[in-house]
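sry for the spam today, last one i promise. struct tokens for design, 291 residues
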């Protein structure tokens, strides 16, 4: 076995990084150089390590290889797609959904929207919510972890890819993973009765191998999401459904709010969902930042 190996970080806990290599998993610590340069290794990183204890499979992180992409929340790198999980009950936070989609569009990361707990929606409101995002060009899956509904389609969408299940706390990410891959036996929680928010049952981001060439990242949930790092003038490029119309506006610097002869506004209610457009206006005017 060589003293230098290349591998991928599959988990990071308490300053230790678990790196999977062709010779198995090594527990590594990061060199002080990373701290001096303000670099933080994250799950999904491809890295070079130096082996210091072959018998105990220990080593040091020496180099982080260039990242193809990176999400800041949850923190993960080099993924193929995001499976954005939201629950139809008690209520989908569409501000959070739109904010997350904008971040992924800016990074060029594909997203599949997974609307969970459809068994609890007798009025099938989930179809109306899903149509708005299908109109925007996103693939939408309707699932129920409790009733195994839609899981075959979800499993097929993950095949041969590195996917991350992301979304607010309490929407059922761990329940979905347990239904799909029961071998992991992930901890499952529910909504906190005190604050009405989801409990963080997943405490550390981890890259799990679920098949030949198929990986899934289980990550902690969140209760808010910020797009403050995206310039307001760039927000229009983060809306997939706007893109076919952006070059057709009368004004070159049109931001699609109060300008006349705006090609984007002309499509609202036709192939641009009214609710999505109204939330864009709030974001572009700085009235919401999802903090």
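last one done:
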């Amino acid at each position: 076995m060589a003293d230098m190996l290349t591998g991928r970080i599959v988990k990071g806990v308490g300053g230790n990084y678990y790196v999977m290599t062709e010779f198995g998993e090594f527990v590594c610590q990061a060199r002080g150089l990373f701290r001096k340069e303000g670099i933080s290794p994250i799950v999904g990183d491809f890295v070079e390590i130096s082996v210091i204890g072959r018998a105990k499979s220990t080593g040091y992180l020496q180099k982080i290889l260039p990242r193809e992409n990176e999400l800041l929340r949850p923190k993960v790198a080099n993924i193929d797609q995001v499976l954005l999980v939201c629950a139809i009950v008690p209520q989908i936070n569409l501000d959070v959904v739109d904010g997350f989609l904008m971040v992924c569009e800016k990074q060029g990361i594909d997203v599949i929207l997974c609307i969970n707990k459809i068994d609890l929606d007798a009025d099938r409101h989930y179809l109306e919510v899903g149509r708005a995002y299908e109109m925007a060009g996103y693939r939408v899956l309707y699932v129920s972890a409790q009733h195994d509904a839609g899981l075959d389609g979800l499993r097929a969408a993950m095949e041969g890819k590195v996917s991350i299940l992301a979304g607010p706390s309490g929407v059922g990410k761990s329940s979905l993973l347990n239904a799909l891959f029961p071998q992991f036996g992930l901890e499952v929680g529910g909504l906190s009765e005190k604050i009405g928010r989801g409990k963080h049952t997943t405490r550390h981001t981890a890259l799990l191998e679920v098949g030949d060439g198929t990986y899934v990242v289980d990550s902690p949930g969140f209760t808010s999401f910020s797009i403050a790092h995206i310039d307001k003038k760039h927000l229009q490029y983060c809306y997939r459904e706007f893109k076919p119309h952006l070059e057709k506006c009368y004004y070159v610097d049109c931001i699609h709010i109060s300008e006349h002869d705006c090609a984007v506004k002309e499509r609202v209610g036709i192939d641009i969902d009214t609710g999505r457009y109204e939330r864009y206006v709030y974001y572009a005017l700085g009235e919401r930042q999802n903090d």
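Confidence is low (pLDDT under 50) at residues 189-202. ok im logging off now
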